[in-house]
Design goal:
nine-stranded mixed β-sheet; 13 strands; 18% strand; alpha/beta; 13 helices; globular
Length: 342
């Protein structure tokens, strides 16, 4: 499956590069332009390739910029030099929505495509491990409680946190600050684990240590997968779909006693689960006629349904009623309002 997906991504990139190089910006802008989440990139790349192969439109240009980076580009304004669609592995923030409005991006449709879990994974050469969110928090927080005070994180090994944990150096490859995966990890693990700890005053604490235990591995989750094959004592943080695609070399840690499985993610039992989104800039409809055709293809049952192509790549489908609601939202070009985010 990885070879098939990679060939599609290479082909898509090659087509985009050829068009850009030969015809310049004006010709390339005739194509749909998509940016955003590295987690959604494999799913969107499949749809992009299918769209180019089955319609009269050119294959869209797609870039993996991270959720935050994609929303920043998307909200820069309206015009041919700005993206038409951005993918996000978290919901748009109110501050980002307000920035869109300020820059004239005033008509946006939100689409939820499915669920994903954030895997905390390691090489399959290790024994399976069950971690709590508190243990992960203590391994990665910049400051931790000791003797009633917050101190710079002193933990060097997992066994320093709990003697039952492996006697291994704490080494975690994870996404950068522009990533929606990191945003979700900080909310669902760091904040959730610390909000009831008295030392933090009742507020969730999300600062991640910067002393080398957490390694910013960039926006390409495939690079984290590759590093875990080489650094077998380390852990990695990425979307469940990348774990699903690499079960021959990786295993996911159970978190709070729940293993990362499709059923546990879709039910919400797995505690580090999230929804996946894309956002459409409706003001580009006339200048980029491919936009809605692509969006409607993405939302079809053959893509996001229980028997859809994207499930084979690791997407966890929404319940039938939610899929229908989201499909209608895209078809009707429903306008996202600030009140919807509160």
């Amino acid at each position: 499956m990885n070879r098939i997906l990679n060939s599609r991504i290479v082909k898509t990139t090659a087509i985009a590069a050829a068009v850009m190089g030969v015809a310049g910006v004006a010709q390339a802008r005739e194509q749909l332009r998509i940016v955003g989440s590295s987690t959604i990139y494999p799913f969107a790349s499949y749809v992009v390739e299918e769209f180019g192969a089955t319609t009269d439109y050119q294959t869209p240009v797609i870039e993996s910029t991270g959720s935050g980076g994609g929303l920043k580009l998307f909200c820069e304004g309206v015009g041919e030099d700005t993206p038409d669609i951005t993918n996000a592995s978290r919901r748009i923030k109110t501050s980002e929505f307000e920035r869109c409005q300020q820059n004239g991006v005033t008509d946006i449709t939100e689409a939820v495509i499915g669920y994903d879990g954030i895997a905390f994974a390691e090489s399959s050469s290790n024994e399976p491990i069950d971690l709590t969110r508190e243990q992960i928090f203590l391994a990665l927080a910049a400051k931790v409680p000791q003797d009633g005070k917050l101190v710079a994180n002193p933990y060097q090994k997992w066994s320093d946190i709990d003697p039952s944990l492996p006697d291994r150096e704490i080494s975690v490859y994870g996404p950068p600050t522009t990533s929606g995966t990191r945003d979700a990890f900080q909310e669902l693990v760091m904040e959730a684990a610390s909000e009831d700890m008295p030392a933090y005053g009742g507020d969730g604490y999300t600062d991640i240590r910067s002393d080398g235990a957490y390694i910013d591995a960039g926006e390409n989750d495939n690079l984290i997968v590759k590093r875990l094959a080489e650094d077998t004592k380390a852990f990695g943080i990425f979307g469940y779909s990348f774990l699903e695609e690499n079960t021959d070399t990786l295993i996911g840690a159970s978190i709070d006693g729940v293993a990362p499985t499709p059923d546990a993610i879709s039910s919400g039992e797995y505690p580090v689960s999230r929804s996946l989104f894309f956002y459409i800039k409706n003001q580009h409809a006339e200048s980029v006629p491919a936009m809605y055709e692509y969006a409607n293809l993405f939302m079809t049952e053959k893509m996001i349904g229980p028997m859809g192509y994207l499930k084979g790549l690791g997407l966890i489908p929404l319940p039938e009623e939610m899929r229908s609601e989201q499909r209608q939202a895209v078809e009707n070009q429903e306008k996202l309002e600030l009140a919807d985010l509160k």
